[in-house]
Structures are given as structure tokens and as C-alpha cells.
TrEMBL record:
GO terms for biological process: DNA integration. PANTHER family: INTEGRASE CATALYTIC DOMAIN-CONTAINING PROTEIN (PTHR37984:SF11), PROTEIN CBG26694 (PTHR37984). This is Uncharacterized protein. InterPro entries: Integrase_cat-core, Retrovirus_Pol_polyprotein, RNaseH-like_sf, RNaseH_sf. Residues 113-143, 207-231 are annotated as: Disordered. It comes from the Eukaryota. It comes from Phlebotomus papatasi (Sandfly). Gene3D superfamilies: Ribonuclease H-like superfamily/Ribonuclease H. GO terms for molecular function: nucleic acid binding. Residues 121-143 have a biased composition (Basic and acidic residues). Transmembrane segments: none annotated.
């Protein structure tokens, strides 16, 4: 690949053993390749590769289920992928990587483009749709800016599986030594080991001073709530007094109406005139 396409500017790799060796670091440094390592236990940082791997595994499962040659099916899939315009950029992968579109099964007016694209509209479209997708996912997950800064004492989330009694965060305390975006570097206070984690896997520990200030703030808020409750009770009592006075006035009015109303004369029915009643 390097002989045909040359050396890339950057490598984005996970923390697999084959990518963290000194030999690989020397290989990249000697050829001027910047090595970008993703945050451990945070595959979302390399989501594009994970999405492509999912498509490859799906193709391999189909080939295995049909008892076909997986190598041949994989080559056919890659040929279709290279010559199919992407839904986000509107261009084929070969057009973006090589500056020209290779011929495939999809008919086109120009089978081969000899000149690389001069416009950057596909870049703008790609950036716009990625930002739109990011905003949608952030809203869906309730993502917010982390308040962790350098020098804070934090707890680290237990990302390895444990039993049912294992707590979400470990008991060891770490101090934040560096932060770049959502990637945070922490140091174990006891052992001095350095770890790199996403800010979502860290929980800030509040010291007694912070707790005292937070307690004072809570007490102030409690006093305000007590005042509001007292005022509300006073208002309710006033309303009850008004309601009681209103009810008393209504009852007095009803009694006056009852007293001033003329009594109705009760007449005996005509059918009882011929009878003697005891």
C-alpha cells in the first residue's frame, strides 16, 4: 500500500498491542507519520472505522451462511464500496482518495475523470452533515460540557466486568494532569501510574471545603424555600378566612331569605272531603 499510495500523514489507531510497541512508534516517526491513539475504552472516538468494520463483518457472515468463498465475496464488496457515491459526501471513496473515479457497474456519463475535483462542496456537505449528526447524538445522549479541570481529584469508572456488588466507580483517587477536549490524563495518587480516559468515565471528588460551601448554599436555598412555604401558608390562611367570611355571609343571607318568605297554605285534596278522618 505504501509503495502505491505513499505514506499517510496520520495514523488513528486503538490501543492494541500491535500499535503500542516501540518498533511501531519508531516506524511512524522515521517516515514522518503522526500517530493518533484513541482514548482507551472509548470506541466512539474511532467510530468511522468501527462502522466500516461492522459492514465487513456483515458481509463475511452472509458469505459464511451461504457456504461461499469469503475472499471472493469480500473483493466484490470492496469493489462496490469504492465505486458507490457516499450518502454524506456525494462522491465515491476513490474519487476523494485518488482524485478520480474508477469504473464500476454503476453507469456514468464520464467513466473516468482525469482531473481531480477543484471544488470543495463535498467537504462542506460532509462537515455540515457530520455537525448535524453530532448535535443530534449529543441531544439524544444528554451530553454536556465536562467541568473537570487540571488539578481536580476524580474517581475512575470500572470499565472491566465485575460481579453484581461492584460499584460503578472505583475507590482509588486520581489527580487530573492533562486534558485535551474530552480526553483526560489522570495519575493514580497511590501508585503514580498514568491513565488516559474519556471525561465521561471520570467523576469529580468534592473536598470538605467544597462540601462546606455546597452545604452553605444548600442551607441558603433551604431558608429561601422555608420563607416561600411560610408565605404560602399565610396566603392560604388569608384565603381561608376570606372563604369563611364569604360562607358566613351566604348562610346569613339564606336565613334572611327563609325568614322573609311567605308561608304556603296547605290545602286538603278534594277527594278527602267525603271521608271522615280520625
Amino acid at each position: 500500500i505504501f509503495t502505491r499510495l505513499g505514506y499517510p500523514r496520520t495514523f488513528t489507531v486503538d490501543n492494541g498491542r500491535q500499535f503500542v510497541s516501540e518498533e511501531f512508534d519508531y516506524f511512524c516517526k522515521e517516515r514522518g507519520i503522526t500517530l493518533n491513539k484513541t482514548t482507551p475504552y472509548w470506541p466512539q472516538q474511532n467510530g468511522e472505522v468501527k462502522r466500516q468494520n461492522r459492514s465487513l463483518l456483515k458481509r463475511l457472515r452472509i458469505s459464511n451462511g451461504l457456504n461461499r468463498d469469503w475472499k471472493k465475496d469480500l473483493l466484490e464488496y470492496m469493489a462496490m464500496y469504492y465505486t458507490t457515491p457516499h450518502s454524506t459526501t456525494g462522491r465515491t471513496p476513490t474519487e476523494l482518495c485518488l482524485g478520480r473515479a474508477i469504473r464500476g457497474k454503476i453507469p456514468s456519463l464520464q467513466d473516468i475523470e482525469t482531473q481531480p475535483p477543484l471544488t470543495t462542496e463535498y467537504r462542506d456537505r460532509d462537515k455540515m452533515l457530520k455537525e448535524k449528526g453530532k448535535d443530534k447524538e449529543d441531544k439524544k445522549r444528554g451530553a454536556k460540557e465536562s467541568d473537570i479541570i487540571i488539578g481536580d481529584v476524580v474517581l475512575m469508572k470500572n470499565v472491566l466486568p465485575g460481579n453484581k456488588l461492584t460499584t460503578t466507580f472505583g475507590r482509588n483517587r486520581f489527580i487530573v494532569t492533562g486534558k485535551a477536549g474530552a480526553s483526560v490524563t489522570v495519575m493514580d495518587i497511590k501508585s503514580g501510574k498514568i491513565y488516559c480516559r474519556n471525561s465521561a468515565h471520570l467523576k469529580k471528588v468534592y473536598e470538605p471545603e467544597d462540601a462546606q460551601s455546597g452545604k452553605e448554599a444548600d442551607e441558603g436555598q433551604q431558608d429561601m424555600r422555608d420563607q416561600e412555604i411560610t408565605q404560602y401558608k399565610d396566603d392560604m390562611l388569608c384565603e381561608q378566612d376570606d372563604d369563611q367570611e364569604t360562607e358566613d355571609n351566604i348562610e346569613a343571607t339564606d336565613r334572611m331569605i327563609t325568614q322573609t318568605r311567605n308561608k304556603r297554605t296547605v290545602r286538603e285534596p278534594e277527594k278527602f272531603k267525603d271521608f271522615v278522618r280520625s
